[in-house]
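Record type: monomer structure entry
Structure origin: computed from sequence
Chain ID: A
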Amino acid sequence: MPGPGPSRRSRDTMTTVSETVVNEDDRELVALGYVPSFKREFSNLATISFAFSIMGLCSSISTTFNTPLLTGGPASVVWCWILGACMCFTLGSSIAEIVSAFPTCGGLYSASAYLTPTKYRARVGWLVGWLNILGQIAGISSTEFGLSNMIWAAVVVGKDGDYEITQGKVVGLFAGLLVVHGLLNMLATRYLASFSKSFVFINLGATFIIIIVLLATTGRDNMHPADYVFGSAGVVNQTGGWNTGLAFLFGLLSVQWTMTDYDATAHISEEVRRAAYAAPSAIFIAVIGTGLIGWLFNIVLVLCSGPLENLPGASGNAVLEIMNLRMGKTGALILWVFVCLTAFFVVQTALQAASRTIYAFSRDHGLPDAGYFGHNSEWTNTPLRAIALTTLVSFLPGLLDLASPIAANAMFSLCAMALDLSYIIPIFLRRVLQNHPEVMFKPGPFYMGDGLLGAVVNWVCIFWTLFVVVIFSFPTVLPVTKENMNYASVITVGVMVLAFAWYIIDGHRHYHGPQSNIPLPAYSAGPSIPEINSADRDHKSKLDKEDLA
């Protein structure tokens, strides 16, 4: 006979605790100058799952594995991953520190306003906002594009190579998948949170199962020696003319693209309970987990990969060809379903995060829409207009594939370049200007301090990001033609130039940096957030002390 359920007093106590947590989060949001507009339905598990899902792990590696393997060789796959993962750990930690201090759906875009003197606040916010939006849109497009290719690759394997994939088929499936993701993101927050909880188990479960099955189905005689996996025998320059060192470093694209969009968890922070704790913790855990497990996954893939000249095979996807070689067609296709499902989850979370960024930017009048896209639906408590706009705009980069499949790969570099540049700007400002009288940096619960540790971590991630941005600007093969040109740097610089031209012509009229939307007399003049931040946060601290008493 089952025991008695919780008493009414216990249920009331649990309800009170839950409401207290939400009230504290909302007070913090009010202290940052915003009216709470979302329901906080994301628990710790859902938030961690969201952070893991945005990186994708097995699906993201499967999407980008060809680049390091076919430019620098197998050793580039292995060593560039762990090198990049260590550097991404410094970037993730620096981002987590800022997210903990400023838990709003604007993420690092909003934080940049707090960390900038008044004179430059609007221009810095404008730059970071557009870079972040560009990177997130490129991330959605590149992942959806990768998923479309992965599905068609499975069709080729299923038909034993007797199937032709055309650019029209890839783009058509890409567009259909985007529509599905747009519709799913229009669900209420409680459904999105429930949906997100399962992501991490499928993501990690699929990765570990593939690792185990590959090792079990590959005989010792068929495994590559250590020198091929880790040593000089695995350095194979296939770029057509670049020096071997640069060819080797092209392998960084896989890890930098996989382990990016760290601040996606920040963009849902207004939907997260105990956001100042949960969001940075989720980022920190996901970066460590993805880095270490991803390295193991890459090592096993190279170990079991077979002859390099047979890759990427008829399907065009080296990971699927390796699985097909070792597991057989049936086993490979069954597990490939879960890899594709993981990629589906990546787009689901990425589109949710990007729509919240556009919502926040519109809320601050960064778009010439009079705040139209900064509106939450009363029906779902989610920004349906921003979701629709994000879905529509994300379709545009996919059209590159109709012009050139090689040029379309620029989406992957573009995502990493634009997002990482938008990250290091507020990190630089936090490190250099934190003691400026007009900058109000109040550390959150996740704080590395002002000592040597925090300084080293911040500066390492800044210089590393500038280094990889240069690497990702190069075309990966020679000779360079209009078909294989890497357009990532051109697009990034072009967007920055157009954004500032727009700001000079018209943007400065409606955008003055993040603005409070609290409808109180004290805010009727529309002060910028940092100007009201100190008083509100002091008021919050007083309320917290009264609650404890």
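Annotation 1: Confidence is low (pLDDT under 50) at residues 1-21, 522-549.
Annotation 2: Residues 306 and 477 are 24 Å apart (CA to CA).
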